[in-house]
Design brief:
single chain, alpha/beta, 7-stranded mixed sheet, 6-stranded parallel sheet, 23 helices, 19 strands, about 35% helix
């Protein structure tokens, strides 16, 4: 048997760690690795048109599967393009291993063609970032990178010079066992006892949930029912906690709705469950706060805590539920449920009059129709900007749907690349990219990747010919909008020229039919919907500092964009209230 080279050993380790594909753009320093992938039947090379897409795709794959995903970039400019997607993956806690190939090892430090130092450049967006400077470092260094990415839920970067990748690997090492999943973390009894005392002493408790409640829906509902607590959520907690939730009071933050803000401020005890909600201006400073998180570095960095609890949300609640006293007084919970329903009623009224006849088309109407037509287990990838608003307000979670976006890093252009990664995990599952015209056009070249691999991603393009969220920020700050207008082509014609299905919609009566046809289409499809750039209604009393840093007052913008089926859910919760 021929002796392995370093590149082959690297690829073998990826395969043993569960990696099924490597996203990237080929280049000379990557050639040994790409060739090793070509000859290994257990892994595929996915040729994208831009390395930023490779990193976003790997991030989405990791978030969908919960397993390690991988991407690669060639030396210098190639791997530099990875950095934005890697920042997003790292801040989304997606386990991703990135290969940043390097110039010939003998030339490092001498200003060689395309020289950069990836082992320095990627430090801030990774848990582990190291250069392989000798074949003798294989496979231990790559094993360590895998363990960091999976164990700490984030990015690891391995820099590998092309010449070293071609060298013979050390004698085939014994296959070392690799971590492929995270353990459950249970808090200590002392912390559980302290939290029980806080809860039992409080008359009014509110739960505020983030993405750390994934897999803990049943426990959160049982706990909220026992202590008669309203349940609010951050944007990243929406898909995990909003569905089948009789205690739902909506979402807090700039895109928030309902009574979540009131519930978090009018309680005696606020319990933050698995959330690193960054906008501390929306959190109270005059109530007792306990926080539960599996990442200890998240505890207390947004607000002053009365109790910090290190543990998984599900394991923590399993310890709490049998210990806390059941509360019998529902007054606070029922008050918040009514406030929530009333708030949603008020928002909906602005967008229920002749919306189906309004031209240009209301983007809210597009999101509402899409929500109704999409599959019950669809994956939605969402562009940063106004598409975040429509996803937050209109996509109805059910425990099977997924909603993925750049919710922590806030990058433009993420939706299409993430849809690529999501679709590769399951070609039969419906994947919908909710793209803005600004974000889509930024990485539009990778629409060709959909065509090249015949990925049946459906791109629903909210085309208002502007950078809508930026324009809103300017208006709120008292500035005239400037530099926010896009001169766009007929994107449907572009899609057809690429070899995909494309349809343009300018009239509301044509929308449902166009979406149905695109969703039924077997291959990639794009629906270019011309939407109203003035869809947002801005209240008259807005100060410039209300939007700065997503400050507290920005919640008053309300973004009169309706709330879709959430109103029905709120009304149902009111109807189901026990009556004395």
């Amino acid at each position: 048997m021929a002796k392995q080279n370093v590149a082959e050993q690297f690829v073998d380790i990826l395969v043993r760690a569960g990696v099924e594909r490597l996203y990237g753009v080929v280049g000379d320093s990557l050639n040994p690795v790409v060739d090793a992938v070509r000859r290994n039947p257990a892994i595929d090379w996915v040729h994208v048109r831009h390395e930023e897409t490779a990193a976003f795709a790997a991030s989405a794959e990791a978030q969908i599967t919960g397993k390690l995903a991988a991407c690669a970039g060639s030396c210098g400019p190639g791997n530099l393009h990875l950095i934005n997607g890697l920042y997003d993956a790292h801040r989304s806690m997606a386990p991703v291993l990135a290969l940043a190939s390097q110039i010939p090892s003998s030339e490092i430090g001498l200003g060689y063609f395309q020289e950069t130092h990836p082992d320095r450049l990627f430090q801030e967006c990774s848990h582990y970032c190291e250069l392989i400077s000798s074949p003798k470092q294989m496979p231990r260094l790559v094993n360590t990178a895998v363990q960091h990415a999976i164990g700490q839920s984030g990015v690891s970067v391995v820099a590998l010079p092309g010449d070293i990748a071609s060298e013979p690997a050390p004698e085939k090492a014994v296959d070392t066992a690799l971590v492929t999943s995270r353990p459950s973390v249970r808090p200590g009894d002392a912390e559980i006892d302290k939290l029980v005392r806080l809860i039992d002493a409080a008359d009014k408790v509110t739960l505020f949930c983030g993405s750390g409640t994934a897999g803990a829906h049943a426990e959160v509902m049982e706990f909220a029912g026992k202590i008669k607590s309203p349940v609010g959520h951050a944007l990243r907690g929406k898909e995990w906690i909003q569905y089948d939730n009789p205690y739902d009071v909506g979402m807090s933050g700039l895109l928030g709705y309902g009574a979540a803000y009131e519930a978090t401020h009018e309680c005696d005890l606020l319990i933050l469950l698995g959330t690193d909600f960054p906008y501390n201006a929306f959190l109270p400073d005059d109530v007792r706060i306990a926080q539960v998180d599996v990442r200890p570095e998240h505890l207390g960095r947004r607000s002053k805590l009365d109790l910090a609890v290190w543990g998984d949300v599900r394991e923590t609640l399993r310890c709490l539920i049998p210990r806390v006293r059941e509360k019998t007084n529902r007054r606070f919970l029922d008050k918040m449920l009514k406030k929530h329903a009333d708030a949603l009623e008020g928002v909906v009224k602005a967008y229920t009059r002749k919306v189906e006849k309004h031209t240009p088309i209301h983007p809210e109407y597009v999101a509402s129709v899409l929500d109704e037509l999409a599959d019950e287990d669809a994956v939605f990838t969402v562009d940063t900007g106004m598409c975040n608003v429509w996803a937050a307000r209109y996509l109805t979670p059910n425990g099977r749907r997924r909603v993925i976006g750049s919710f922590s890093h806030g990058s433009m252009a993420n939706a299409l690349p993430m849809a690529i990664g999501a679709q590769f995990t399951d070609r039969e599952r419906q994947v919908v990219s909710m793209s803005g015209d600004g974000g889509f056009s930024m990485l539009m070249g990778d629409f060709l990747t959909l065509v090249q691999y015949d990925l049946p991603v459906k791109v629903v393009l909210f085309n208002n010919s502007s950078l809508g969220m930026v324009e809103l920020e300017m208006l709120v700050a008292g500035l005239p909008s400037y530099g926010t207008t896009n001169r766009n082509p007929d994107f449907a014609a572009v899609a057809r020229a690429c070899g995909a299905y494309g349809v343009r919609v300018e009239k509301p009566k044509d929308l449902a039919g166009a979406l149905k046809s695109a969703l039924r289409h077997k291959g990639p499809a794009l629906v270019d919907v011309v939407t109203d750039p003035n869809a947002l209604s801005i209240p008259p009393k807005i100060k410039a500092d209300m939007v700065t840093g997503f400050a507290l007052s920005a919640s008053k913008i309300v973004l009169d964009g309706g709330v879709g089926r959430m109103l029905q859910m709120a009304r149902s919760n009111l109807r189901n209230m026990p009556r004395p």
